[in-house]
Design goal:
Layout: E1 2-3, E2 22-26, E3 38-39, E4 49-52, E5 65-68, E6 73-86, E7 92-100, E8 106-108, E9 111-114, E10 131-138, E11 141-150, E12 153-156, E13 169-176, E14 181-186, E15 189-195, H1 196-199, E16 207-209, E17 224-226, E18 242-244, H2 256-259, E19 266-268, E20 280-282, E21 294-296, E22 310-320, E23 325-333, H3 336-348, H4 350-386
The chain binds 2-acetamido-2-deoxy-beta-D-glucopyranose (3 copies).
């Protein structure tokens, strides 16, 4: 995996106009979302989602988002694609925004892509998924998950992709190409990219240590041996390892005649020399480290289509200690261009959102200052009247 910091927008090859298919698009800008999303009934105590712009935002319509409402809850909700997405021969793009408006205490912010045929009415943590992608923050742990289900096992990307942590909205984009490479963009800039083969453990190793081979009994891999001519000095063991603590005399009230002998606690003896070991000399019979020979792994298999999934739903299946996270602009498409167009609109709202936050922060600071001043005035007036 390469972590990238340079601003580099992935653009489609000019002149290749392939008809884009949008499999899922949700902006929460009106109330039609209600017809799409299905709350899981797997548990009675799931946290609720509601529509909100959050306390600071760029635009009253475009910033409407799905917001988690209840602290210390599991969440489970899903929505179907307009049609099943088989990504065997297509680029798969998943993009959405997350805003941890209340900071980075502890909240999952990832999205899951589910295969067709799962019981979404009873969606829960055990429901199988194809892809899990997006940020997960908990104190100092702030990472972007990228997990692929392969051969019925969830496999995490190797290496860490750090997630940005501030209270602002961030856009997460996952692109999986049919040539089995991927790119992860944050705020429409490439953050990590690589090959699925290199960055995930999909397959058993090609070779294994030969089970029939073992180190010959006479193989000498001791680099040094004891010098037989070296002898322990006579006075080596004169000092014991522990001695009675000189700083632990009997207490004043202790009467040896009545109370018996006082035993001091034992402490390490500073004069103890440790265990004696003979001097080491090079081993004339040393053969080097034994290397276990490898053979082809009979269980090895390889499958071309590690990027290929049949997918049918987006789902939020999360645990949040700190609720209030906002999710928006969810897109599943086969078109990188469509994702970039939507990302451009998102990026254009970043400065207004930042300014709205700054304004709110300034107002907060001014309020705190006014309250402090009022309290001080009150205290001064009280002191005056008591004189
Ligand atoms: C993918 O392309 C191959 C080769 O053209 C074709 O045989 C196969 O049916 C395609 N699969 C899908 C799901 O489109
Ligand atoms: C994989 O496909 C993408 C999109 O067409 C392309 O940009 C990239 O260079 C390809 N990577 C390899 C290793 O072929
Ligand atoms: C190990 O040795 C046995 C007996 O010679 C043989 O049948 C078997 O195939 C060997 N196993 C491997 C992995 O080479």
């Amino acid at each position: 995996m390469r972590l990238t910091t340079a601003l580099s927008l992935l653009l489609g090859v000019p002149g290749t106009l392939v008809a884009a298919t949008t499999y899922f698009r949700e902006t929460f800008d009106d109330d039609a979302w209600k017809t799409r999303w299905l709350q899981s009934s797997s548990r009675a105590d799931y946290g609720k989602f509601a529509i909100s712009t959050g306390t600071f935002f760029a635009d009253p319509v475009a910033s409407r988002a799905f917001q988690t409402q209840d602290d210390a809850r599991n969440y489970a909700i899903s929505a179907p694609f307009t049609k099943e997405f088989d990504s065997t021969n297509s680029t798969f793009v998943l993009q959405y925004s997350v805003k941890f408006e209340r900071g980075s205490n502890c909240a999952g912010g990832y999205i899951k892509i589910l295969p067709p045929g799962v019981d979404v009415a009873r969606l829960n943590g055990e429901t199988p998924y194809n892809i899990m992608f997006g940020p997960d923050i908990c104190g100092p742990d702030q990472k972007v998950h990228f997990i692929l289900n392969y051969d019925k096992e969830n496999r995490m990307i190797q290496g860490e992709i750090p997630a940005p942590i501030d209270q602002l909205s961030h856009l997460y984009t996952l692109i999986i190409y049919p040539n089995q490479t991927y790119a992860i963009l944050i705020d429409n800039e490439v953050d990590a990219e690589g090959s699925l083969f290199d960055d995930f453990d999909f397959f058993p190793p090609k070779t294994i240590p030969d089970p029939n081979a073992s180190k010959p009994a006479d193989w000498d891999d001791r680099e040094t041996i004891d010098d037989e001519t070296d002898e322990m000095p006579d006075d080596w063991e004169d000092e014991p390892e522990e001695i009675p603590d000189p700083e632990d005399p009997p207490p004043k009230y202790w009467n040896e005649d009545v109370d018996g002998e006082w035993f001091r606690t034992m402490v390490p003896n500073p004069l103890w020399k440790g265990e004696w070991t003979p001097r080491q000399i090079p081993n004339p019979k040393y053969k080097g480290a034994w290397v276990h020979p490898e053979i082809a792994n009979p269980k090895y298999f390889y499958h071309q289509n590690v990027h290929a999934y049949k997918s049918a739903y987006v789902a939020f299946e999360l645990w949040q200690v700190t609720a209030g996270s906002l999710f928006d602009d969810i897109l599943v498409t086969d078109s990188v261009e469509e994702a970039h167009a939507m990302a451009a609109a998102f990026v254009a709202r970043r400065v207004p959102e930042y300014k709205a936050k700054e304004k709110l922060d300034n107002e907060d600071r001014a309020r705190v200052r006014r309250e402090k001043e009022a309290k001080e005035k009150e205290k001064a007036a009280k002191g005056h009247s008591e004189l």
